[in-house]
């Protein structure tokens, strides 16, 4: 078998086809044929049939350990062959085809949702995952993944975090005692 060029992969979800790496413009969206969620930007694509994978879905490992849970990659059966519905325990959307699962507690997560940071900083709040009841931005009930500031009791939905503008860069403060 000939070696696979560096900018192509062979993926078990699309056997017999080579997927070419694309660095597409970030404003162009696509539906990932691996995890069935919307993607934007870099991806792998089969030029023969337009099968597309997020860059991470194309390279995600079979097992990984994250701050969330020890996780194993699962390939979900076709919709007609399922016994029950499953949702991502981070974003609340349904999981389709590729997703990660904790075998001990059945925690399910999309490949991209698994890449969320354990903590982040937004404005003046250091935020950690939490179990809040109300979002400080939209005032809606929190039923899925959210971040919380333990110092001031600010809880924010994941969607609201992603929709907020990034915090401003610090500005230089002039030295108050002359000098120039």
UniProtKB/TrEMBL annotation:
Pfam families: C1_2. It comes from the Eukaryota. The keyword NADP does not apply. InterPro entries: C1-like_sf, DC1. Residues 12-57, 67-113 form the DC1 domain. Keywords: Repeat. Transmembrane segments: none annotated. Gene3D superfamilies: 3.30.60.20. This is DC1 domain-containing protein. It comes from Escallonia rubra.
